[in-house]
Amino acid sequence: MRITRVTTGVLPALGLALGLALGPAVAPAAADASPSASPSGDGSAPTEAGTSFRTATEIDQGETATASGSAGDYLYWSFPADTGQRPTVEATVKLPKSHTAQTWQVDVYDGLRRRQACQYGAQTRTAAAGTASVELACVLRTVRAWAEPWADDPLPGTYYVRLTALGLTAGDLGLPVDATLRVESKDIGGAAAVDGSLAQPLVPGAAVRSKDAENGTDAKGGSSGPAVLSSIEPDDGWSSGWWSDRWVWTAVGAVLAALAGIGGYTLTRGSGRPRHVPPGA
């Protein structure tokens, strides 16, 4: 009977505690399930690519960017990636009707222009002669909020995509091609959380903005504000790096431990002194 009473009292308290702990996290989790970037169906997606890191065309995650060029060109795009995201870059190249075998490759670089390795995906593919198109993909490692200076871990900021053909023959150089690029991310969450964060994301002009902000002037020597050299940024802003769902599960674990302690004490303390035993006996 005592076990039944204890179980009846602990289970409602346990459910209430879990509801209070998980309640604030349910709404953000549901919001994160939808992509933060707007789709490209409104016709605002870029229709050209840059030819270098400095002229890379900025795109948002979830957009489908297109570009026309010539075989042998270097095509560059840039996109923002924030803490806890695992970006996937997908590229499709439409080839001319007549061509020899061509090898195409997509490379991804971080804000420091360090080449980032792909976890998996067909980063390099060879299209046989007469093939209409070739599809490439690169799944990056999860973006971390902080890393050691000597590490090459992906960090929040701007990422550059370079698409090009390798080892073209003279007959294929200059042939017209059409490229399509799309970047999407999977939110990994607290599984990739680390204790630390960058002072600023690795985006073009971050150092200039920081220096000018300290001096109170812009890049031209005026006082209107810091220079802004890059407009690329997630729709909801850059993450501060301190919050992750690990906090939620830590709180849930603490609540469960407290309830387990209370339940264990209640079960093992006994029923007290029997009525027929006088005090001090």
Looking at this protein, list some descriptive labels.
281 residues, disordered N terminus, alpha+beta, 25% strand
Q: What fraction of residues sit in β-strands?
A: 15-25%
Q: Give the helices and strands as they follow along the chain.
A: HEEEEEEEEEEHH
What global shape is seen?
Answer: elongated
Q: How big is the Rg?
A: 28 Å
Overall strand count:
10
How far the N terminus sits from the C terminus, by CA atoms, comes to: 27 Å
Largest sheet: 6 strands, mixed
Q: Which parts are unreliable, with pLDDT below 50 for 5 consecutive residues or more?
A: 1-42, 218-228
Enumerate how many helices there are, as a single number: 3
Mean pLDDT reading: 77
Backbone structural class? alpha+beta
Helix content: 10-25%
Q: How would you describe what is shown here?
A:
There is one protein chain. The chain is 23% helix and 25% strand. It has 281 residues and is of the alpha+beta class. The longest helix has 31 residues, at 2-32. Residues 1-42 and 218-228 have low confidence and may be disordered.
What does the secondary structure layout of this molecule look like, with pairings?
Elements: H1 2-32, E1 57-58, E2 64-70, E3 75-81, E4 85-94, E5 102-109, E6 115-116, E7 124-127, E8 133-139, E9 157-166, E10 176-187, H2 206-215, H3 246-268
Parallel strand pairs: 1-3
Antiparallel strand pairs: 2-10, 3-9, 4-8, 4-10, 5-6, 5-7, 5-9
Helix pairs in contact: 1-3
